[in-house]
Design goal:
The chain is mainly alpha-helical. It contains 8 helices and no strands. Helix 1 runs antiparallel to helix 8 and helix 3 runs antiparallel to helix 8. The chain is globular, with a radius of gyration of 17 Å. Its main location: membrane.
Length: 211
């Protein structure tokens, strides 16, 4: 219980600093929040492949956090770090399938991904291919999590799928803010949904540890 309060407080301090400063608080608490999620998972053990993959995905996410908050624009490097994180999360989710897949789910998810891409397309410029690859990968990650939930009908799968869907929302808002024009509430929405998504994915791994 206390660790989740610490994670929530750290996330809140980062979001507050994004609007009001100080800069050191902004730079400290963004990776620290992800780091606390890693420590939480580490303390519960990494005995299963699923837990190990989620831990490595969090590590890649922390690297992406650092790239995206640097004073100089490191958007492509941050995008690449999160792309790797989504690949690793996907492998973890696919490893948990216990029966045949459903095919209406990817149709819905990739349809949504195409809509977001078309919304961003006029302003992407030279980033068309990297952004398209990223949207495809995060959509595939959500598909993997959804199949995990649908085939297992488990709370663990539900946490994973919920986290993946919220991750898509977070990244969609981030992309719209960056490519379609910034707006004041974007940072709060992006970071709140981001930390919620990561927390749900970690909770899915913790449920395996307690099983």
């Amino acid at each position: 219980m206390w660790v989740w309060l610490a994670i929530s407080f750290s996330a809140l301090l980062h979001i507050n600093a994004a609007y009001k400063g100080p800069k050191w608080q902004f730079y400290l608490f963004k990776p620290l929040t992800t780091g606390l999620l890693m420590v939480t998972l580490w303390q519960h053990g990494l005995s299963h492949f699923y837990q190990q993959a989620i831990f490595v995905g969090l590590l890649c996410s922390m690297v992406g956090d650092i790239f995206l908050m640097l004073p100089r624009d490191r958007f492509v490097q941050g995008l690449g770090s999160f792309l790797v994180a989504h690949i690793i999360y996907s492998v973890a989710f696919w490893s948990q399938l216990t029966s045949s897949m459903v095919w209406w789910l990817p149709a819905m998810l990739f349809g949504g991904g195409v809509i977001v891409f078309l919304l961003l397309l006029p302003t992407l410029g030279r980033l068309v291919i990297p952004v398209a690859l990223y949207i495809g990968m995060i959509t595939q990650m959500a598909w993997a999590a959804g199949e995990f939930w649908l085939t297992t009908q488990s709370l663990m799968g539900a946490f994973a799928f919920g986290g993946a869907l919220i991750f898509m929302v977070s990244d969609s808002v981030l992309a719209i803010d960056r490519f379609r024009g910034p707006y004041h509430s974007a940072t709060a929405i992006v970071m709140t949904t981001y930390y919620l998504a990561q927390s749900l994915i970690v909770l899915s791994a913790l449920m395996m540890a307690s099983a």
